[in-house]
From TrEMBL:
One of its GO terms (molecular function) is metalloendopeptidase activity. Keywords: Signal. Coiled coil: none annotated. Pfam families: Peptidase_M23. This is M23 family metallopeptidase. Residues 78-172 form the M23ase beta-sheet core domain. Residues 1-25 form the signal peptide. The keyword Protein biosynthesis does not apply. It comes from Nocardioides panacis.
Length: 188
């Protein structure tokens, strides 16, 4: 009886370790990742598979990729989205009902977002911009719903490794129209 209890306890410890270690280990895979966020938690979101850490939050940042912005103190730049570190190939899903926007239309993402960046115009009147992807499963004009696979994370256009750049703008607006994307990303 004691041996059975010991084996069961050991099995519980091993299984608990197996579920906790891979998520943390995944976050340490890409040596190019640099974290400019004090948030060390691993987050979930309806927009991506797995649990991942925020690299750069929305707003003023010390990350060296952004020019000084007068909205920010000192030499800080302004980041228009939220970057979430994740391994290349991580599944990205839509979490809005909307239509994929023609990349040549007003508010098109620039080269910094990677050559395959795209926007989904949500029914709520905002554009959700998904950057640093390689494999895209939607095309301009496609209707998307929550849960639909739309892309896979990559490092296209990113100097800091594979991650999701998640940005929300006024429909048809450029970076200056970006709003805090946290309510849309729904990090848990």
């Amino acid at each position: 009886m004691r041996l059975r209890a010991l084996v069961l306890a050991l099995l519980v410890v091993l299984l608990a370790g197996l579920t906790a270690v891979p998520s943390a280990a995944r976050e340490d895979r890409d040596p190019r990742w640099r974290f400019y966020s004090s948030d060390h938690r691993l987050h979930t979101s309806p927009w991506f598979a797995g649990r991942h850490r925020v690299m750069i939050g929305y707003g003023c940042t010390v990350a060296p990729y952004y020019a000084h912005d007068r909205r920010c103190p000192g030499r800080r730049g302004f980041h228009h989205g939220i970057d979430v570190a994740m391994p290349c190939g991580t599944r990205l899903n839509s979490n809005v009902r909307g239509r994929v926007v023609d990349p040549a239309s007003s508010g098109a993402p620039g080269a910094a977002y990677g050559p395959y960046a795209f926007r989904i115009r949500a029914r709520s009147g905002v554009d959700v911009l998904i950057g640093h992807v390689r494999r895209v499963y939607v095309a301009p004009g496609d209707l998307v719903r929550p849960g639909r696979l739309v892309a896979r994370a990559n490092d296209q256009g990113a100097p800091d490794g594979c991650h999701l750049h998640f940005e929300v703008r006024r429909a048809g607006g450029g970076p200056a129209s970006a709003i805090d994307p946290a309510p849309y990303l729904r990090l848990g």
